[in-house]
Design goal:
CATH class: Alpha Beta
Number of strands: 5
Number of domains: 1
Shape: globular
CATH superfamily: HIT-like
CATH architecture: 2-Layer Sandwich
Distance between the termini: 25 Å
Largest sheet: 5 strands, antiparallel
Structural class: alpha+beta
Order of helices and strands: HEEEHEEH
Strand order of the largest sheet: 1-2-3-5-4
Number of helices: 3
Strand content: 15-25%
CATH topology: HIT family, subunit A
């Protein structure tokens, strides 16, 4: 991971941010290029590029604060809907290689637009895949 990315610089105090929440393990701040009013980023203080690299403690800390911050964003913006977005890898549209979650309020047309193109999963392929995932756990 590139420790000099923008989130690392924010954690190191080299770049200012509009902090909305901070504890020993997490930091939440407003996105400076928001998709909608209230777009907030939540990051772990552990420096990892991808979600699967986080320690259990950092992952638990993020899980504890996301609902609290989402409630605050909804209350502050008046939004009643939001998207929670987390990308891993350039092919999945990750631009900053430090784990981060976007809380993106949806108000009118402002917010995250999502294209969803599902396809069926055959029972035999599902059984085989399920077994591979269970074995990996």
């Amino acid at each position: 991971m590139d420790a000099s990315n923008i989130f690392g610089k924010i954690l190191d105090g080299e770049v200012p941010c509009h902090r909305v929440y901070e504890d020993d393990h997490t930091l939440a701040f407003l996105d400076i290029f928001p998709l909608s009013f209230g777009h907030t980023l939540v990051i772990p203080k552990q420096r990892c590029a991808y979600l699967h690299e986080l320690s259990d403690d950092s992952a638990a800390a993020i899980g504890r604060v996301l609902p609290r911050i989402a409630r605050a964003v909804l209350q502050a913006t008046g939004a009643t809907a939001y998207n929670l977005l987390q990308n891993n890898g350039a092919a999945a549209h990750q631009a900053v290689f430090h784990v981060h979650f976007h809380i993106i309020p949806r108000v009118g047309d402002a917010g995250l637009g999502v294209g969803w193109h599902p396809s069926p999963l055959a029972a035999d392929a599902a059984a085989e895949l399920c077994g591979r995932i269970v074995d990996a756990l």
